[in-house]
Design goal:
heterodimer; A: about 210 residues; mainly alpha; MetI-like fold; B: about 220 residues; 9 helices; MetI-like_sf (chain A); MetI-like (chain A)
């Protein structure tokens, strides 16, 4: 089989890869935003509970959790589609990392901003949403970009729970024609072709931001 | 179906044994990754060709999934005449993958050592190799200790992927057991829990490194 034919075969899976990426992103960003802000804002016992929850998602391995939710759910009459399991596990894992980035960004804003806000008579929550959060979000833009790349890469895992993404298609074509060198070079190429433009875009964005601030 | 505690407890000896292989592979992968990272950090400073090759390799690794890299080495190396055990291929993939990330860290670490240190050493009459090993390296290690420890955690969390190519580590053992009994709940719970314990322990270790080994 020619290299082009292999590449075309792999690309049949691109819509699944994209769908899993999009669904995961729908989990990642709300997760990071909500829990990042909450961890920054909460104190005492609720904060401890939240930290444990976030650390659970950060400390486990995506591949183990993916299998766990895929196989263990049905035993307790919870039937989730492979898409749902994939988006949930990938989303919560990467979202947990993102929440830490947002929390760190919020903490890095000087106390002067908050004090100035309360001197102007804004409530604590209005200071958070009108003054601190916009600045923190600006700081995490490059991290959010890297997270999208991370989601695309992690989406390859769903091939292990039976979704026909590009990685799954590679295994399929391996069974049809045993040409590993061509197939897996093409597969690496597909992922790099998706991720490289994103990486370059993030790089350009960061440099533009630096120029503007300078 | 529910949860069969008796079966759950009976799995532990095998899972624990498998977990030793997980830890061993992660340890070997860490050593390999540090070596690859050092080579890349040095390669990027050795002329134009070295820089382009090392940068290209680093980007290729950083922009593709670990799983795909693992498949690539597992299926393609034999075509090139290199037949290795699944475990060796797994450790090699871990080394190359995390080596690419560590190369960036080490490069930044070398850059972070103030220029004056090298100049002062030269003024004191130290030779090139003495400057590298006695002046730059010890200071650079302090810069890179914390990020390196964090990559070691990621590396541990990536090790279960080796099960995909048939390495009988923790997740692989859990799957073997599951396909014997057709019960997935208990083996995967056991592997998941034990893994969480290991990763929390290593996480604590990393936090200790982060707190105690800092740039001077």
């Amino acid at each position: 089989m020619s290299f082009t034919a292999i590449l075309l075969w792999l690309l049949q899976g691109i819509s699944v890869t994209m769908a899993v990426t999009a669904l995961s992103a729908l989990v990642v960003f709300p997760f990071a935003l909500v829990f990042g802000v909450l961890e920054y804002r909460l104190r005492g016992f609720p904060r401890l509970l939240l930290t444990i929850f976030i650390d659970f998602w950060r400390s486990s391995s995506v591949i183990i959790l993916l299998f766990f939710f895929f196989y263990v759910g049905p035993a307790f009459d919870i039937f989730l589609s492979a898409y749902a399991v994939g988006a949930l596990v990938i989303g919560c894992n990467i979202g947990a990392y993102g929440s830490q980035a947002l929390r760190a960004a919020l903490e890095s804003i000087g106390p002067g901003q908050r004090e100035a806000g309360s001197a102007l008579g804004l409530s604590r929550n209005r200071v958070l949403f009108l003054i601190e959060l916009p600045q923190a979000l600006r700081k995490v833009i490059p991290i959010a970009g890297n997270e999208i790349i991370e989601i695309v890469k992690t989406s390859a895992n769903v091939s292990l729970i039976g979704l026909a993404d590009v990685t799954f298609k590679a295994k399929e074509v391996m069974q049809a024609t045993h040409q590993p060198a061509e197939i897996y070079s093409a597969l690496l190429g597909v992922y790099i072709a998706i991720c490289l433009p994103m990486a370059l875009a993030i790089h350009a964005l960061v440099r533009r931001g630096q120029r503007q601030r300078a | 179906m529910g949860f069969d505690f008796e079966y759950f407890w009976s799995l532990w000896p095998a899972i624990l044994e498998g977990s030793l292989m997980t830890l061993g592979a992660a340890a070997a992968g860490s050593v390999g990754a540090i070596l690859v990272g050092m080579a890349l950090a040095l390669g990027r400073r050795s002329g134009t060709v070295g820089r382009i090759l090392c940068a290209g390799f680093t980007e290729a690794i950083r922009l593709s999934p670990f799983l795909v890299q693992l498949y690539f080495l597992y299926y393609v190396l034999p075509v090139w005449g290199l037949t290795m055990s699944a475990l060796t291929v797994g450790i090699l993939t871990l080394s190359l993958h995390f080596g690419a990330f560590l190369g960036e860290v080490f490069g930044a670490g070398i850059d972070a050592v103030p220029r004056g240190q090298v100049e002062a050493a030269r003024a004191l009459g130290l030779r090139g190799r003495q400057i590298s090993f006695l002046i730059v390296l010890p200071q650079m290690l302090r810069f890179v200790a914390a990020p390196t420890a964090n990559y070691m955690i990621s590396l541990l969390k990536t090790t279960p992927y080796l099960a995909v190519v048939g390495v009988p580590e923790m997740l692989g053992v859990a799957f073997d057991k599951a396909s014997d009994s057709f019960r997935y709940v208990e083996p995967l719970t056991a592997a998941g829990l034990l893994f969480l314990v290991y990763s929390i322990i290593i996480g604590r270790g990393a936090r200790y490194v982060e707190r105690n080994i800092r740039p001077l």
